[in-house]
Amino acid sequence: MGRETERRVRVGFFDFASCEGCQLQVLNLENELAEILQHVEIVNFREAMSERMDNYVVAFVEGSITRPSDIPRIKEIREKAEILVALGACAVDGCVNANRNVLDVNDVRKTVYGDKADYFDVFDRVVPVSEVVGVDYEVEGCPIDRDEFLTVLESLLAGKKPHKASYPVCLECQIRENVCMYDLGEVCLGPIIRGGCKARCPSNGFVCNGCRGVIKDSNLDRMREIMHEYGLKWSDISKKLELFNSWSLKEVEVGLLQRG
Amino acid sequence: MRGLRKIDFEVHYLTRVEGHANIVLSASDRTIKELRLEITEAPRFFEAFMRGTNYKDVAYVVSRVCGICSIGHSNASVKATEAAFGVEVSEQTKLLRKLMMHGENMQSHALHVYFLAFPDFLGAPSVFPLMDSNPEVVKIALKVKRLANDLSDMFAGRTTHPIRNVPGGVTMVPSKDEMYDMKRRLYDAMPDIETTARLLSKVKIPEFERKTEFIALRKEDEYAIYDGRITSSTGKSVDDSDYKALIKEFVVPHSTAKHARASMDSYMVGALARCNLSFGNLSPFARRIADICKFTVPNFNPFMNTVAQLVEIAHSLEDSINIIDCLLDQGVEEPIRVEFDVKAGRGVGVVEVPRGILFHEYEYDAEGRLVYVNLVIPTAQNLENIELDMKELVPKIMDRSEEEIQHLLEMLVRAYDPCISCSAHMVDVKIV
């Protein structure tokens, strides 16, 4: 047992502002959990265990950075971990937490806190983990895809940098021969959102709302063509991007409109 | 006689719960100076940023409040939206949504019973060491949890953050073959639940009682999870839209989640509340599991919530089989979602989620954009009850070691299976 423990890689799971749904996906790997534990030793996972050690090599971090007390905590995790993985959309790009970034901060505080708006010490802007500390790898999605998490874990254990899909959701959707959401009169972000999810939402009869983040560059050209073809305005697209991509909204707007 | 005894501790970062909380206790002899459950979860401002969201995306986005009860949020949401627009969904849609909820209920309860509570009963710090010491429990745990997740995946499109549930109905339904296979697996898991019940009947569950009020949805002829009348154990009941006539929220300084009160000093929601109010409507298999666990109602021991959850797993299992049978008999009828017109309006959606009764209240403008959101979360409703339980429990266990007191308080909080990231987004003000 002792020897086995030694060769296992020590990992920790940590969370900031999030729904904890991405850590839940790890606990939802029921069929794989036993095998995973042959290779990794979980030394820190507050949601699931009371014992806790700080000798982790890989840190999986879920959640966005939203308040001053987050800063020393994430820096400490960064310092202790050899590899830091941003786990899920909240950590990678702010996900829905960043939606308040595009609203008037005073208005947000007043809506939620009334006349005691000063009580909560939160930043005006929600940011992803990578704006505060270096991130070695990102697992996208809201929530993360369980299979993709396994692939990433395998790569890390093999000492390799995991691959990221370079193609959009749209491609995976076409391979599955789904009816195009645009032909059903919907606005879908599949053409500009990073694939790797097997087009999970369109394959279940719902549009892609963009939880895996925008792949910029050439895909924006395709988006422009679609907008032209279906007579859509930037505001039609931006309303959708505001749901999961508020953090990178400006950048996408510039990329999409300037070239057009 | 013992001398004066001082106890001071803070359990920072309470573990094996969903979200961030601390327990603070300061007592001298038998007098409690300070005792509170601090909720330190980062607020996420859903009420503010949800405004302006198109009705088509509301359920999809608001499910992100909670990773573990996202299907419950999705159902409260589509029901509130449908109420605002005056949409009547088909009976078939209600059955499909119940199956999603049964899947989530089983999944969430299994996570709590096996992964979070069993380690306490078996004296382990987490489920992971149990893989070596109690492999048979872990095997059942993984099997039941996988089954529950597959059930939600099958009907909701995804177990966390569902896809197929939309205002007016659902976007897709599984094939007959998938449903037959699921039915077979559900039957197959029944002996596992019995084995679990026999194990649970042997563990020592702390003895503690405090008379409190229970609130849950209730129906005459069915164990209510999707709809019903909002009912209190004091005898009062109201319709969905009148929920504010029954429950009042209030704010405490040490919690980023609101507390709530109804007719008494506090009330409890969740599996124990539902069992207390609707025990007679549980399925025969669920009542057999209750028998094995010697679980009877009325039951005022919050530690028994874990047992009530196992009873509900059994109910969800059997009721899912019945609903699938019904769908297979009738065949799936088109349309699977109804068309409707968007109009300005206000609507309340109430459902029972794993941790208790959940309220979503929305107001839409004429274009179908959200202008007002209010969410009342089960865990927030339980917070006052947890604190009053702790205050009654501590003087009774004051003779024990500090470690034991601390562990028992942690177990008490865990028994409620709190979902803190879910409750803390709705925080309001600090009372100074």
Q: Can you give a write-up of this model?
A:
- The complex is a heterodimer of chains A (260) and B (432).
- By secondary structure, chain A is an alpha/beta fold.
- Chain A has 2 domains: 2-157, 3-Layer(aba) Sandwich (Rossmann fold), CATH 3.40.50; 169-259, no CATH class.
- Chain A is 40% helix and 10% strand.
- In chain A, strand 3 (58-62), helix 4 and strand 4 form a beta-alpha-beta unit.
- By secondary structure, chain B is an alpha+beta fold.
- In chain B, strands 8-7-6-11 form a 4-stranded mixed β-sheet. A 3-stranded antiparallel β-sheet of chain B has the order 1-2-3, covered by helices on one side. A 3-stranded antiparallel β-sheet of chain B has the order 12-13-14.
- In chain B, helix 4 (91-121) runs antiparallel to helix 6 (135-156).
- The longest helix of chain B has 31 residues, at 91-121.
- The radius of gyration of chain B is 21 Å and the shape is globular.
